[in-house]
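If you are new to this repository, start here. Below is one unmodified record pulled from the training split, so you can see the exact layout before writing a loader.
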Amino acid sequence: MLTQLPLQSRVTRAPETVSREIDGRAVVIHLTDGRVRTLNPTGSVVWQVLDGRPVADLLEHLVLTFPEEPRERLHGDLDQFLSDLVERGLALRQE
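And here is the target side for that same chain:
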């Protein structure tokens, strides 16, 4: 599993995925193997903007969206979430 993605790294949705939002949650389907993943509200916010922008920009988006949450917690959660998406083949990491 990836850990502590550099803030300049870029992560984008894998082209083999499609998603739909249902009741404020993104449902992501990997078209090649049929795996389905339902994201929590925070993950859904990240998924919406997962377009290859730097991790630093994704973090700032989360900080603005969830101002009541400590930045360090959001950073750790984002890193873990992005690493999980990459490991599952739902997202691609670019340096």
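Two things worth knowing about this chain: The helical segments are 41-48, 55-65, 71-87. The chain has a mean pLDDT of 92.
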